[in-house]
Give the backbone structure.
Amino acid sequence: MSADREMKKGRPVLMEKLPLKNGLILEFWDESRHLVGDRWYVGVRAVVAVDIPDEADGDLVVEHLAVLREKLGNRIYFKLLEERNFIPENEVEELKEELKEVFVRNSVNYLSHPDFPRRFLLMKSEEAYRKKLMGPEYLERFLKDLTGPGST
């Protein structure tokens, strides 16, 4: 199925993959959709998958990682959505490229840092553990933000 047809059905379409210096892959997903007339919602989501290690080392806590692994499997996702509404059709492609370029310029150094995966896991696993203690509804709401593209 073509990317245009996928976009019209409201499914995210993979735009590009960029390898990062730390071995992770930055993906850009197009979530744009037609609104009305010649107007569009333009959404570009940046996604980086981070594997959950089998064993905790350093400041990672086994019980905290277990909360993530039990609900999400062996990886979590960093995601950031840049979006604009009511964009004229003739500006959609240019805006998508601009959103990607701005993200790369502002965030690739952060995501490429060798400690990014560990720090991201540490922060999200601690927060997931706290949400679990608050109740299952809090944990489920929190975990939605850590799922892969197309899962949200």
Observations:
- The first strand starts at residue 13 and ends at 19.
- The chain has five helices and five strands.
